[in-house]
Specification:
alpha/beta, Aminopeptidase, six-stranded mixed sheet, about 20% strand, MurNAc-LAA_cat, Bact_Sporulation_Assoc, N-acetylmuramoyl-L-alanine amidase activity
């Protein structure tokens, strides 16, 4: 009896340990305020309760904010925004709360007026202004104010989208950001490189941002580029091997949020990626998947980063490449019975699965999206070429007799046996429950596409086309959607 109780206790304890892991979504938090000024304040609160020094820039002067971020990091100071002619209320309150004694204003009086500076002085705070006659001179003067760097970051001074993801790297390494035009280097930038005896540089952006003619005039240049702002940010993270244990995510068009968010990422020795505010971008999904990132901090409130994006980040399928294979196609109709062609049912359900996965932040890929035939070998090769994380083949079942009915899911043991079975175990009970079909269970079988696919793979037999009851369900959109939902939910459960 005592041994029996001991076994029960151990099983119960093991269940307690297992359940939280099984039910875990990705960790996502949001930091933001009601405006760019409020967001900068809320971000400062993540690091500082008090700060003797603060850096202030105009909330609309993105070029100044970009070069100010590494300076703020080096001065151990928050970066705050103000309006041009009056100190913003949020920033004024924050300076009081932090008991700030010194403020560095980055930018000239056209962007942060003398009146604003005087308001800060009247708070008993001393002022230092770093500014040039243009953005190139301002960036150069900020660089001169920083502790002797060995490397500089080169950006097109008019293309703000290239900047956010490089800021964490620049800031934590003490590398100033200098501006150039697309086709030539401004004299102020050249002077800093010479005076500071800079030995190497990183160009951020493609040749559409900074030409090769500029590249040739820089010390030991390395270029990081991308086809768009999202891919560029992802490439920066990968090529510079930035930490992704906690990823900061900002809207790639909301520069005010992205810049202060990047500084927060630097403070925590982490990386920042950017995305579309309404939907996770492809480049962003890829970096999340390749880095297996699962802990995120979203910068900004809706609509800058929507609830949809927040939920996509929370979903454990985000960034996963899932290959969906609708069986048969074209001249290969599959089973034909009760007025149904299996190839059409498979494709319909697969499209619904694809839509659900894509909406959730996954990178879903279909072996076919229309009435096309691909051999079994071609399907396996396609999945391999996409470096898919999962392979899900969708079929309708058939039998010479009209009696057999129900749903079943198959896996093979050649590759990834344990994970394949786990995926099948997650999908199968949901499939039978949602479709209200007989649960025929999870089974082993050497079907070609799951035998030779090297990633976790399953073949789903949704229901029997040759059974009138099952077929009547497969004719209805509501049940086809239920089948897709079961496959989708099972896939999400697998990742949890």
């Amino acid at each position: 009896m005592r041994s029996y109780i001991k076994v029960l206790s151990m099983c119960f304890f093991g269940l307690i340990l297992f359940v939280p892991i099984a039910l875990a979504d990705n960790s996502v938090k949001r930091v933001g305020g009601n405006s760019r000024y409020g967001t900068a304040v809320e971000i400062s609160k993540q690091t500082y309760s008090t700060a003797s020094t603060a850096v202030i820039v105009s909330g609309n002067a993105y070029a100044d904010a970009i070069v100010a971020a590494p300076l703020a990091y080096q001065k151990n100071a928050p970066l705050l925004y103000t309006t041009t002619d009056k100190l913003s209320y949020e920033t004024k309150t924050r300076l009081k709360d932090m008991r700030t004694k010194n403020v560095i204003i980055v930018g000239g009086t056209p962007v942060v007026s003398s009146n604003t500076a005087n308001q800060i002085k009247r708070m008993g705070i001393s002022i230092k202004r770093i500014a040039g006659s243009n953005r190139f001179e301002t960036s150069a003067r900020v660089a001169k104010a920083m502790t002797a760097p060995s490397k500089v970051i080169i950006l097109n001074g008019f293309l703000y989208e290239d900047a956010p993801a490089i800021i964490p790297y620049a800031a934590k390494n003490g590398f100033p950001i200098l501006f150039t035009n697309k086709t030539y280097i401004n004299s102020a930038t050249t002077a800093v490189i010479k005076d500071k005896k800079i030995r190497s540089s990183i160009i951020v952006g493609s040749t559409k941002s900074i030409s090769n003619s500029v590249n040739k005039k820089l010390p030991s240049p390395t270029r990081i580029s991308g086809s768009n702002r999202y891919e560029l940010a992802a490439n920066i993270v990968q090529k510079l091997n930035l930490s992704t244990s906690k990823v900061y995510v900002s809207n790639g068009y909301s520069y005010s949020d992205a810049i202060v968010g990047a500084l927060l990422a630097a403070m925590n020795k982490q990386s920042l990626i950017v995305t579309d505010g309404q939907n996770l971008s492809v480049g962003t999904r890829k970096i999340i998947g390749s880095e297996n990132a699962s802990n995120f901090t979203v910068i900004g409130t809706p609509p800058a980063i929507s609830t949809k994006v927040f939920n996509q980040l929370k979903n454990p399928v985000v960034g996963e490449t899932i290959f969906i294979d609708p069986g048969h196609g074209d001249q290969d109709s599959g089973a034909v019975a009760n007025g149904l062609l299996e190839k059409e049912i498979n494709l319909d359900i697969a499209k619904r699965v694809n839509m659900k996965l894509n909406a959730s932040g996954a990178l879903s890929v279909m072996s076919r999206s229309n009435d096309t035939f691909y051999s079994l070998q071609e399907r396996v090769s396609k999945a391999a070429s996409t470096q898919a994380d999962l392979f899900i083949s969708i079929h309708g079942n058939a039998n010479d007799s009209s009696s057999p009915n129900g749903s079943e899911t198959f896996y093979d043991t050649t590759y990834q046996a344990t994970k394949s079975k786990r995926l099948a175990d997650q999908i199968q009970p949901k499939l039978a429950t949602y479709l209200k079909t007989r649960n025929r269970g999870v089974k082993r079988a050497g079907f070609y596409v799951i035998k030779y696919s090297r990633m976790p793979s399953v073949l789903v037999e949704t229901a029997f086309i040759t059974n009138s009851s099952d077929a009547s369900k497969l004719k209805q959109s509501v049940y086809k959607d239920k089948a897709a939902q079961a496959i989708y939910d099972g896939t999400v459960s697998y990742y949890k």
